[in-house]
Amino acid sequence: MSSPTIVDGAGALRVAGGTMSVASGILVSNFKLESGTLNGVGSITVTGTLDWTGGTFAEAGTTTIASTGTFNITWAQHQVTIARTINNAGTAVWSGTGGPWWRPMARFFDNKDTGTMSIQNDQSWSNNGGAASTFMNHGILSKTAGTATTTFASTSATSALSRANTGGLTFGANLYNTGAFNIGSGTSHHFRSRQLSHKTQVAA
């Protein structure tokens, strides 16, 4: 698919096997990645709901959830994000029992300043060797369900609010923080980073 492409309506553009290649730009109301691969160097922007239940985001393009959008991450097993940058400016909920494995392509998951990401599991966000990818938080990152710890084993950079309402958050690789950590009663933040840069407050 190539630009300019607009996919509108109450239904969803669905990838459930095979490969969908994005050559330039797509604006879509609702998108489902269930299995197979989304690749290409172009961008896809979702203004409604993006449901990621399986499959792979690949190559050097960008997937963006608009400020009006919702991003549901509900895989039942680990999913491989090969090289694609993901930008969340809307509402993301990571509730599946699997976590992402980033291939060694030094890409980004960026929770934008308008974005919120709610973690509702005890899984890990991992880097699968090579050049580390980065989880960036410019909005609000919250752990809102699960009694154990969610671990970010990839490089993390946060300039806004990270908080645990239940269980805990562990930052196990390099952490660069200029934001705030809010630690709720009975919860924890663990810093096991090889490199830690921290410039603002940790509040209970």
Structural description of this entry:
By secondary structure, the chain is mainly β. It has one domain (57-203). The chain is built from no helices and 27 strands. Residues 198-204 have low confidence and may be disordered.
SSE sequence, one letter per element = EEEEEEEEEEEEEEEEEEEEEEEEEEE
Q: Biggest β-sheet, characterized?
A: 11 strands, parallel
Rg from C-alpha positions? Answer: 16 Å
- Tell the overall outline: globular
Distance between the termini: 49 Å
Task: Please tally the helical runs, counting DSSP H or I stretches of 4 or more residues.
Answer: 0
Number of domains: 1
Strand content: over 45%
Helical percent range? Answer: under 10%
Helix/strand layout:
Blueprint: E1 5-7, E2 13-21, E3 25-28, E4 31-39, E5 43-46, E6 49-52, E7 56-57, E8 62-65, E9 70-73, E10 79-81, E11 85-88, E12 91-94, E13 100-102, E14 108-111, E15 116-119, E16 124-127, E17 134-137, E18 140-143, E19 149-152, E20 155-158, E21 161-164, E22 168-171, E23 175-177, E24 180-183, E25 188-191, E26 196-198, E27 202-203
Parallel strand pairs: 1-3, 2-4, 3-5, 4-6, 4-7, 5-8, 6-9, 8-11, 9-12, 10-13, 11-14, 12-15, 13-16, 14-17, 15-18, 16-19, 17-20, 18-21, 19-22, 20-23, 21-24, 22-25, 23-26, 24-27
Notable traits:
204 residues; mainly beta; 10-stranded parallel β-sheet; 0% helix; globular
